[in-house]
Amino acid sequence: MFGNYLIGLREGLEASLVVCILIAYLVKTGRRDALRPVWSGIGIACAISLAFGAALEFGSQELTFEAQEMLGGTLSIIAVALVTWMVFWMRRTARHLKKELHGKLDAALAMGTGALVATAFLAVGREGLETALFVWASVRASGEGSSSPLIGVLLGIATAIVLGWLFYRGALRINLARFFTWTGGLLVIVAAGVLAYGVHDLQEARFLGGLHTKAFDVTSAVPPDSWYGTLLKGIFNFQADPTLLQVIVWTLYLVPTLALFLAPNSFTRTAERHTRKATNDQGASVAGRPQEGADAECDDPPPTGSPAKAGEA
Description:
mainly alpha, two-stranded antiparallel ribbon, 10 helices
């Protein structure tokens, strides 16, 4: 359940930050007339993401067992690839996310209503479709027939919505670089379990061999129905009797991916300290205000009765 909560929190928070930045920028620049098309684009993105998730869940039930396993294994691998790309992309661009979205929104404002709807849809829709796919794959890996994985995802998304609202109100700040580093590392571990489960699906579909070649079997020591077996399954998608191929794929993915993801940390922090020191020495930063992107803080809406002009953004 924790692994699925983490997925909902991480993916939901990314979408919440995007919405927060878009809405706050429009309010600050006095373009409240553009809020309706932006919310329309966000609503369309959410609806399509839900429809995509429902299609995955109910559409696969009409297939034969082998076809279900083939589909599940293939989509699990695709989901892992997308999530891996996402954690590295967000790790690299979190600091510049606000500036990038502001630029896209300015261009859309100049083009008209349709461009605003499309901008909001694309900004949120990518997160939504990616979340639906990875959640579906993770729920399958965590244990079919149980509602705990889905509850974990919904709780994570609900937490992300609350955090997004707090960001917008200016009541909460969070260091994005640190947040995405920790959650990204944990998500890589979850993704490794989903990948191993996807391989097992392909073995059951008879696309890959080695289904009966077990790497080890600790079922007697870690019963799947025990509290600790359930905990390991929910967090790491742990399997007490994995095949040899599952263990090989899990290791080949997790070790290099996690090493590459965490390796730049020390260099990044050193560079950030030097940059912050140089900025402070030059007097370019305002005391007490975090650097753009380093902390999640949406632009505060202007006081009632004194909206900011578009040129003042």
